[in-house]
Amino acid sequence: MPLLICLTSLVSVRIAAAQAEDVAVVVNERNPVSKMSRAELRRIFAGEERSWSAGLPIKVFVRASGTQERGALLKLLGMTEQEYKQYWTGQVFRGEAQAEPFTLPSNGMQREALVAYPGAVALVRLQDVKAGMKVLRLEGRMPGEAGYPIN
Amino acid sequence: MRHIPWTATVLLLLSSLCYPQDTTSTDPETIRQLVQQVKDLQERVKLLESQQNHAEASKPDSTNPPVPPVESADQTAPVPAVGQEPREVHGIQWRGFGEADYKALNQRAPELGTYGFVPGSQANFYTGDFGLFLTSRLTAKTSVLSEIVFEEADAQSYKVDLRRMLLKYDYNDHLKMSFGRYQTDVGYYNWAFRSAAWLQTTADRPLVMEFATNGGLLPTQAIGVSVTGAIPSGTLGLNYVAEYGSSDTIRPDLNGDGFVTDENNGNQTNVGVFARPDWLRGLQFGSSYYHDQISDNVLNGVSGTPVPPPPGSPGPAARYDQTIVNAYAVYLAHGIEFLNEGFLIRHALIGSSLHFDTPAFYSQISKQFGHIRPFFRYQYVNASPNNFIYKDVGLRYGPSFGARYDFNDYIAFKAQLDHTVRRDEPDLNGLQLQLAFTF
Known about the structure:
Number of helices of chain B: 3
Oligomer: heterodimer
Strand order of the largest sheet of chain A: 4-3-5-1-6
CATH class of chain A: Alpha Beta
CATH superfamily of the largest domain in chain B: Porin
Shape of chain A: globular
Structural class of chain A: alpha/beta
Number of strands of chain B: 20
Mean pLDDT of chain B: 82
Number of helices of chain A: 5
Strand content of chain B: over 45%
Mean pLDDT of chain A: 85
Largest sheet of chain A: 5 strands, mixed
Number of strands of chain A: 7
Helix content of chain B: 10-25%
Distance between the termini of chain B: 52 Å
Number of domains of chain B: 2
CATH architecture of the largest domain in chain B: Beta Barrel
Largest interface: A-B, 50 and 60 residues
CATH superfamily of chain A: Periplasmic binding protein-like II
Largest sheet of chain B: 16 strands, antiparallel, barrel
Radius of gyration of chain A: 17 Å
Structural class of chain B: mainly beta
Number of domains of chain A: 1
Shape of chain B: elongated
Order of helices and strands of chain B: HHEEEEEEHEEEEEEEEEEEEEE
CATH topology of the largest domain in chain B: Porin
Radius of gyration of chain B: 33 Å
CATH architecture of chain A: 3-Layer(aba) Sandwich
CATH class of the largest domain in chain B: Mainly Beta
């Protein structure tokens, strides 16, 4: 019996740890969007979709290299850091984007950007979600739920 | 839990307010003021709590528990007003691209000297395009894009080419318009790499996608309007492109005879669709159809004087319908670059049944290994020997292989070997070295 309790506790701790590593998709709290698919998210962060359904221009904010959010972004896009930079250089030169997405060095700055820009979208670690950020459902799941696709 | 910090704050304030009572007189007026302050603070706490509850209640999906509680400490942080987008400075953003090249051929047989490569020489250094790329955002949906290219010409002279100058208006993802001088979206390569060698894996462009001013076969530039956007198509990810403009291509002969062909193109129309399906990330495939009318007006490349047409040629007054059908499939993911593009260029003499078809394709594959990306390309162009417009092109095919080494995010070195089989000419072997950079 004690062994079973230990195992259960261990599993619970592992699940909790995995949920804590989930990366939330957050937008300005006034954005009417509340859910999206993984493919839509990829298109937005690849600059292929540049406006929300209401016509509001999308403003993408990303975290600096080396952060968990950056890792999740590269995983989402299927790129290495080098490929990501080359990709955006190409996007700008093709005229597909005006500039590479804003890279912000801190969660605080990212939060302020999300609050300030109505069309803002960013990836934020679950434990760093703050007031002013609206968390979107991804593939029907909220971060922390089993099967959430980004971590 | 969120009540605790506020309660603690109130208690802390109370204690700090009460502390002086031990050291000062307890006159009724002081007590009354303190009581009033406590009441004010209690009211303020209630107000803040009700605001917080209201904000949480108005959030959709608030029944989902996993999102952690908001830290109360952050509520005191200065936050810009919601809905008021900060005013951005709409300055000009610069980007630059450049290259320094070395090219060697195994013979002095006449061959076009693109950029600063000297025809008839076996090897020399030269520079390709040096491009200054400018963008400026005017409004949330309007911007200006400009690409000014300095290109090496004969005797190390440089000519300036306003390769792109566009006023862009993005209404939404389904309607994006550009007005001005654009690079035609005939095929994938022209769209993907524009004129920056730094973006390309290889040292040069495939012949069929080479710029017309360097002997390429396609009309790569035009002035007019270009419209593009997404087509609602679910997971297929369809997009369209439609262009209407005027181009006036002057194409130097590839065989190094020193002549140029002034095509005097009429207005051109180009329409295309392409798909980026969600079910295979990195895959893009599409097709386009281009049409304009051209002449075969051959001029001396130096003096600009007309060259007498060869016997049997319809001459410079004749007009041809030029149609270019393109199809491509590319895959870019997991460090793999796999480009496949085919063309069928038809020149039909107007008022006659005479027409010539020129098929062309290239296939290129590369894979990134750390800083190095080895590549292989095979290209093929087959112009009829009776087609006076492409008489200099003839049949050309062969492989290229080499590698690109990225020193960092800004500088890359490329080494490339080419073997080209030519109709009625000896095979041509070449070595190209290129230092490409962006800044």
